Predict the structure.
Amino acid sequence: MFVTARQASGKPPLFCRAQAASFDFWTGWRSYCLQIAYNAIYSARAELLPEDRMFKQALFAIAVTSLSSQAILAQELDGTLKKVKDSGAITLGIRTSSGPLSYLDANQKVVGYHIDICYKIVDAVKAKLKMPNLKVTEQEVTSQNRIPLVVNGTVDLECGSTTNNADRQKQVAFAPTTFVTNVRMAVKKSSGITDLDQLSGKPVATTTGTTSVALMRSHEKGKNVDFKEVYGKDHADSFQMLESDRAVAFVMDDNLLASNIANSQNPSAYAIVGPALSTEPIAIMLRRDDSQFKALVDDTVKGMMKSGEINKLYTKWFLSPIPPKNSNLNFTMSEQLKAAIANPNDNPAESYKK
């Protein structure tokens, strides 16, 4: 009876065809088939014998339930994935001087270890949403505004050099840890400075919106040192304070110090000295309470760790010549990062102090 009704018209009912066009391919196809079934039964109702009416009613109920389920599935997306689907774009928060995680090359194009990881997450979003032509926007952020821009929806993924700590987890969420840093200080070798207790009365640079100065003041050797804080708007600005002798030290993540030294006019003039003030997990940042997007981000990063792709990217950015000066940081992977890759997690910095 279904075949007879389908063949009688020679083509799907107009309503059915319109519905198929209004959904994405698979949702539309399922809806299309169910609509055909319903229309065929409805058109053939006169041919049904009384004993067939129960079958018709049951099949009709299945069709209606299935169509309702398809409508629910079409509305299932929420949070960031829904925002991206509706807008047709995803926005990455990028840094311009957080090498080698996120920085500008000689052509002013943003590159880096975390940029590569973020674009793998973008590929996963494209696949999930079936949007191969999804627009990707890059929004520059600073240490000061990166969290507000993620929270207010301006940025969907922050791909810089953000420490994952307990206070920040109250505002945002983090992908599994992809880098572990030690906070230390860079100085000019000619200064003779090798430790915190030599900084008394001297200007010390750090970047606005970072935790470095607080770490210095809380460290046993820094508690009684009366140094003057000077702030750069970004890491490049902070390093320029050291270069121009407006500061005697620049306190920051050791990888960022190494990158700024490597790209300076005279790399051999600088040294990274003093004790590690803190060991901190660095991760890509996203909005809190967004389970769908968090799951996609986590699965993507964990997949890269399991496949060995993260190790290859680490070699590319930390153990090989990189732009803009083709310098090699020779920054060996730490035992803490090896452990984080072997057992992916988004544990905050406080867990590294235990």
